[in-house]
Amino acid sequence: MSLRMAGRLARRELRGGLSGFRIFLACLALGVAAIAAVGSVRQAIQAGLAQEGASLLGGDAELEFTYRFADEAERAWMQQTSVQMSEVVDFRSMAVVPGATGPERALTQVKSVDNAYPLVGSVRLEPEIPLEDALNGSFGLPGAVMEPVLMDRLGLSVGDRFSLGTQELILTAALLDEPDSAADGFGLGPRTLVRTEALQASGLLEPGTLFSTKYRMILPRNADLSDVSARADAAFEGTGMRWTDARNGAPGISEFVNRLSAFLVLVGLSGLAVGGIGVSAAVRAYLAQKTETVATLRTLGADRATIFQTYMIQIGVLSVLGIAIGLTLGGLAPLVLAPLLESQLPVPAVFSLYPQPLIEAAIYGLLTAFLFTLWPLARTEDVRAATLFRDALSSARPFPRLIYVVATGAGLLLLIALASWFSGSTRLTVWTGGGLVGALALLTLAAYAIRKLARAGTSLARGRPTVRWALSAISDPREGAGSVVLSLGLGLSVLAAVGQIDGTLRNAISGNLPDVAPSYFFVDIQKDQMPGFTERLQSDPAVSRIESAPMLRGIITQINGQPAQDVAGDHWVLEGDRGVTYSVQPPPNARLTAGEWWAEDYAGAPQVSFAAEEAEEMGLNLGDQLTVNILGRDITAELTSLREVDFSTAGMGFVMSMNPSALAGAPHSFIATVYAEEQAEAAILRDLAGQFPNITAIRVRDAIDRVSGLLAGIAAATSYGAGVSLLTGFLVLIGAAAAGEPARRYEAAILRTLGADRGSILRSFGLRSVLLGAAAGCVALFVGILGGWAVATYIFDTEFTVIWSSAFGIVLAGIGVTLCAGLAFALRPLSVRPARILRASD
């Protein structure tokens, strides 16, 4: 028979409507909708960043220098290249106000600007006054504006005075919005805006202190950004300049959005895999009802290929329908929720119907439908003309022919390859794919073990009919225990893994804070201030430890004479500037793993000691030549030792340490970490900041809170994605319960005929749901903990801790969801008269 005949047969089968395929469509549509929605939001943000690149950056292009201002020659190049230029200085400081019991201080991220700022966009203030007037000040004091949260923290109102370093300023307005805030990145404190010239006598911008300068430029209308970028690289080679332009005005946010959306798409794929189980179960149940039809067609001469093609076409049409529904939901949802999303997003977004994410979601849906329907469809070949009985499919061989197994493997590899390409993260995709396959394998084995244990337990439940009935039902392969454990278990596994990862990251940041982390980081301590700084702390019995070190910042530009990124790729050490220190002896807490430290009186060519783990990741070896740009000066040093650096303690740690003579003459400041009892922290800050107003104190607990808040937002986003997986699993569970309703109706009729009352039967139905839910929850808990451990260990490289509160919640969720679904489809069978059921079965 031909494919045309198969098409005619499929069309006739489809006349029966969507009966039996509602769960099929819902599972497929939900998974596709989640992936399409995440991709659409990502595309909207990317479009917004591209469209508003100049506004986000504050100009067409930006040149950034670390801890120095541009010199006259560099300024001249920028002025010749641009139509207009603005200088912005960014650093941290302490805002100080008088208090009833002494000065009160709060950490603030200061942006000092010139008269040309902002080149693009406008600053929004309350009251609505021009920024120029606000920064002019009054009463002989320069003006400043700050974010309302900082005003509330310090109890400030417009017209009040405060200090930055030794400079007193007057607060003239509340800062509501900056046009370039997205490009400034993550800050440890709320923003204060002031003129740079007002800080000349503040002591905050001394040589060696920690600040960065950004020069924004408006380029001629016909300027080619690629050409200007190339000319800037040539003109500023070896100066440590970093270039950004309007093509990607907020690169940090863009990269973060891409990585988060890639992770969410993979979480969505997990939900699609859960839906795939429902798709497979629906196809199996449908084909089981078509056994007699298939056998009849075989009797009339239909061959295997025609039968397979008939139902493949039918399932394919329904799959396209489900995918179309999912694409409609996923494409329209961001449009409908655009006002809400725009108000919540910290960056501009242009919401529209974007074809790329919809195409990606459609491909994911098609491949998932193919993978999860191929084996059930292949089993139609086992129905022969002589097997006109109902259980033909259930008694078929468990594995189809080799060609279908190979096709399934090829489809799975194609899905993983496309997911790697679309997400841009092969490692994360492979981990996710491997985790899903492993989870499905474990859940399948668990479902088989649960049936065997239930069968063994029936003999032990004599005298307890309710328990015996429940265990007997679970042990029956036709009861759907496998579908329940697979669908609900996988959905709960994703949720459990997300919960464990989130909890582990939070613990890694703050879990052991009182035991291992310092109370404060102090930065911008001048060399002549170190004796007084140390004396105050050493005389305080509440201070248990002080660590201090000279601090510079440098950018690794070359490795063995080649561009650093060509050698070590996109390693995090190469992303921006890194801390550099010097010391005569190895730090007390460092352990050399290779090489030797320089002699105390060494004064030869520069040498550098590097963090061992990072060196291994970057492919560095002893003897390599590293070129580090520090304050616009290239220093090429030989790698002579490797040492362990533990960054997990939140204490002091440097990737690079050089011999002292290598950095002789370079202006720098010192940093220090102070370990003290919590009740003494306020007095330490008051005394040190009062004596040295230029230094900045960063309270570690406050920094932890800000990072934890960021993690909370990420965890919420991933939890929503995992929630889609769980919802899909619940739909599959409903489908399995609905499919088993006729069997429960018949079972209830037999039991009632034999004298069982409705309460006992209902308790039996409830008990089997509880047992299956508990089993699914426990297996999901094991899989989730295993997945969380793998991600924490091999991706985030942090110590894993089981979050038991989340773990127990997963088990309870499994019990509750299964019980609700089971009882919802158990009440109707109990209301039907037994005689009516038994008479219909004759």
From TrEMBL:
Organism: Ruegeria atlantica
This protein's record includes keyword Transmembrane: yes
Matches recorded under Pfam families: FtsX
Protein known as: FtsX-like permease family protein
Subcellular localization, as worded in the UniProt entry: Cell membrane
Key words, A-Z: Cell membrane, Membrane, Transmembrane, Transmembrane helix
Residue stretches making up the ABC3 transporter permease C-terminal domain: 267-379, 723-830
Membrane spanning residue stretches: 263-287, 308-341, 361-378, 399-422, 428-450, 770-796, 802-827
Topology versus the membrane: Multi-pass membrane protein
Main location group: membrane
Keyword Cell membrane listed: yes
